[in-house]
Structure formats: C-alpha cells, structure tokens
C-alpha cells in the first residue's frame, strides 16, 4: 500500500509525518507545487517525492498510489478529489472540499455517483474528548439534551493576506464547532442567529470580516446551542464544549493546559497553555490519518463525508447571512438543492419558545 500526499505546507507535512508513523516511510510519497519544499520535506521524513500530482495519480511513481491526501490550496481541492475518485482512489481532503456551497454540492453529487471514498479533515471527530462526548450523548446517559455550548478562541489572528481569502470567521474557524456540534449531538440545526464584532486589527474589518462572533442555534429536537469564536486570546488556544442534559452535564477541553483562570481555589492552566491547534489536536490528527489508512486498506465508511462537510458549510453560510442581515436564518432556506443529511425537508419549530 502506498499513500500520496499532495501539498506539504504546515498541515500537509504533519499528515505526511503521521502517515510515516502509521504505514512506514516506504509507503508514503509526497508532492508540492514548490519542488524544493517537496524535496526538503521528503528528505526530512525519509520518503519519496514526486514531481507533481499527475505522477501520483497516473501511476508514474512505482505503480501510483492507493490513497491520496489533499492538503493543497482550497481552490484546488475539488478537482483533485474528483480526479482521485474517478481513478478509484480513496481520498482524504482538508476542509473545505470546495470554496462555496454550489461547488461542494457538485463534488458531492459526483462522489456519490462514482461510489467514491472520501474523508474530510474535521479532526475534532477524532479527539478523545469529543469522541467520549459523542458516545455519552448516544448512550442516553445525560438524559435529554437541552443546551450545548462551544467555543474556539485563537491566540492571534491569521495574517491579512490569509483573512482576505479565508471566506470569513464562520467558514474558516467556527465551521469546526458547527461540524462537531452535529456529530456530538446527532442533531441538525434548523435555525441560526449570529452576530459579530470588530475589536482588534483594522485589516479584519477591511476584509469585510469580524474577529469575534456569537451564534445561537435551534436544533431539530428543540435543544439550543450557543457557539462563540474569537481571533484574540493571547493566553493560548482554547477550544471547549459543554453538553448539558437533564440528568448530567459534561465538558470537553477542561484540562491542565486550558488557558482559563478560575476565581475559585483551582489552578487553570497548571501547565503551559496550548500555543495553537496543532498542539491541542495532535493526537486527533494522528488518529484521523490512522482512520484514513484503514479506509484505504479495508474500505468501509468515512467518519466525515463530503455530505457532512456540505452540512457544516451550509450552517456557516447561514451564520454569515444572519450576521450581515441581523436576523434569524432558517437552515432550510439556505440549502436550496435538496435536504441536508438527517433531515427530511423543513423541520418544524413547534415547541420552541
């Protein structure tokens, strides 16, 4: 078995490193638009490099690859996913699959028509804390869920050049919270209300974006979710979730490195805070690559499909419309080309105050 990695920037290089740990250096080959970066990364990891993606997919490197990891720029994702699927090659793709809802739907249709295997890079689904929360909700031990609270606080904002092409804080950052909300609860959101503020650098406002957001979502079972995000939390990277039920409540992300100070006699953090997402989710990134290797080797089902990526993208779009227009937005009004996974058309809000 051989797995190719297209794109070895920060996240692609991490995926390649995790693949080497999972399947051995002899079974990994990388390529990048920057040949020198590809050669340097390959030398550091002890793996082979290819001149381009064409060589990987066309079988020009010792018979080609059995799986492909796509970690290239966003505007190249869709084409690479579809080429791999057409060749019968399972593919892992960093989010987003495509830059907008329409093109994501088009990718989904072609993947489904071809029976392709695609895993999308929402790594929180592989984090031990979120996995445990998912299992707790599914088991019913918490009782009926009434409220979910989630947050992502970045230590510092991305550079201006990135913000300008990121798609905005909802699509770039909070989309992870939107995805994990769906996965942990097993519920779809039916309505969102979002607001935002600019409290930091002017270049974020200049890009038409905000640097702090708050979102309230009504779920299909009438439970409520409250999500927030900020580009500024210099104490450290802070990602958490609380799931509150009638019988019990649980939290994800409360640990010795959580960058929050308690006013009671408790010590947070008691260890150095997480400087960024790579450190906080290191184990999750390794686990998602191990899951992809299993998908390549044995088939099966993906924990995060293109349909899941589309559902999170639709919610992010609803959030952005809500923020700009300062009104609640029904999710069913956004997904104009068919129902979302788990929904059968518009869900009634009867019973919601």
TrEMBL record:
Q: Where is the GFO/IDH/MocA-like oxidoreductase domain?
A: 130-250
- Keyword Oxidoreductase applies: yes
Name the UniProt key words of this record, in alphabetical order: Oxidoreductase
Against Gene3D superfamilies, the record matches this protein to:
Dihydrodipicolinate Reductase, domain 2, NAD(P)-binding Rossmann-like Domain
Question: What SUPFAM superfamilies would the database entry show?
Answer: Glyceraldehyde-3-phosphate dehydrogenase-like, C-terminal domain, NAD(P)-binding Rossmann-fold domains
State one Pfam family annotation: GFO_IDH_MocA_C3
**What InterPro entries does its record include?**
Gfo/Idh/MocA-like_OxRdtase_N, GFO_IDH_MocA-like_dom, NAD(P)-bd_dom_sf
Key word Hydrolase present in the record? no
Q: Would you say which domain of life the source belongs to?
A: Bacteria
In what residue span(s) does the Gfo/Idh/MocA-like oxidoreductase N-terminal domain sit?
1-122
What family, per the record? Belongs to the Gfo/Idh/MocA family.
Could you identify this protein by its name? Answer: Gfo/Idh/MocA family oxidoreductase
